[in-house]
Amino acid sequence: MPFQVKFKGEKVIPVEAGQTVLQASLAAGIPHYHACGGKGQCTTCRILVLEGQEQLTPPTTSERAIRNVKKFPDNVRLACQSYITGDGVEVQRLIRDEADRYIFLNGGEENMTRVMGERRKLALFFIDIRNFTPFIEAHLPFDVIHIMRRVFALFRNAISQYGGEIIDTAGDGLYAVFGLKSGIRKAAEAAVLAGLKILEDIKIFNNTYMRPYFNHTFELGIGVHVGKVIVGNVGIGLSDNLTVMGYPVNVAARLQAATKELNNSFVISDRAFRLLKNPPYSAGCAHLTLKGVSNPYEVKLIGKPYAFSKAAPPPSVT
Ligand code: FES
User: Fold this and answer.
1) The pLDDT of residue 83
2) What is the bridge-based pairing of β-strands 297-301 and 266-269?
3) What is the CA(101)–ligand 1 centre distance, in A?
4) CB 62 less than 6 A from any atom of ligand 1
5) pLDDT digit string (tens) for 151-205?
6) 34 within ligand 1 shell (Cβ under 6 A)
7) Do both 15 and 110 map to the same domain?
8) Segments forming the whole domain that contains residue 173
9) Ligand 1 in contact with 235 (CB < 6 A)?
C-alpha cells in the first residue's frame, strides 16, 4: 500500500516503498527538476516540507554534505534522497520554472533561510535627522554629503556595536533591526542602547564639529518597537539585500514620526519598554493614535525635548 504525499498546489501522489519522492513525483507526471539525475549533487529537486517532516527518512550522506555547504533549513530536503515512511506529508517544490531556478541557484545561495524568508520577532529601529532640510538649503552639495556621511557613520557604528543591522536608508533617515542573532529581550535592550548612544554621540558631534564649523546643530528622532515580521532576501542583485516587512515595521516608523508631535527625541512602544531588563530611564508616557487601531497606543518617552537651534545665516558663498 503506497503512502500518499501532497504536492502543494499540484496533486496528491502515491509513493511506493523503495521509491524516492523524486521518482514518485516524476512517475506521477510532475515536472520535477532533477538536473543531476537524482544523484544528490545539483539540488534542483529540493522540496520544502510543509507537513509530516518526521515521515521522511533522515538525510543521506550526500544530502548532509550538500546541506552543510548550502545551509539549508531543516525543512528543506532533496527529493531524490528522501523516502517516505508514513502518510500526512505535504511538500512544495522550490524550483518550478526557469525563474525559480535562477533565484535559487544564482541568487543568494549562501543563506537559504534568508532566500526563503522566515517569520522573526525583532526590535525595529527608525531614526531620522529632524532639522536637515534647512542645512541642505543653506550649504554646498559637498558639505551636505560630507556631513551626511559623518552622521550616518555615527549611526552605523552605534547600530553595529549593539548587533543591529541596517535595512534601508531614505533621505536623512534610516531603518535598522536588532535581534537577527539574539532573543527579543536582548534585541529591545540593544536597540535602546544603540539609540541612546547615538543621541549622546550627536551631542558631541554638534558641540565639537557642527557648531564650530557650520553654526548649526542637529536634532534626531528615534522610534523603537518590537514585533513579528517577515525577514527575507528579495534578491535584486545586492549580495545580502535583506528586507523586513510587517505591521510592526509601520508602527516603529510611526513612533519615529511621532517624536515631533510628542516633542521627545526617543519614543518607544510600551511593548518594547516592558522587555527592558532594568530601564534606567525616567520615562514619560504618552498615547498615540495608530492607523487601523481603535484604542490609543501607549508609548514611553525616553529621549529629551527638542531645543532646535537658531542657526545663524550661513556664510555667503562666492
Ligand atoms: S536531482 Fe540533483 S540533487 Fe536531487
Assistant:
1) 96
2) antiparallel
3) 13
4) no
5) 999 999 999 999 999 998 888 899 999 999 999 999 999 999 999 999 999 999 9
6) yes
7) yes
8) 118-301
9) no
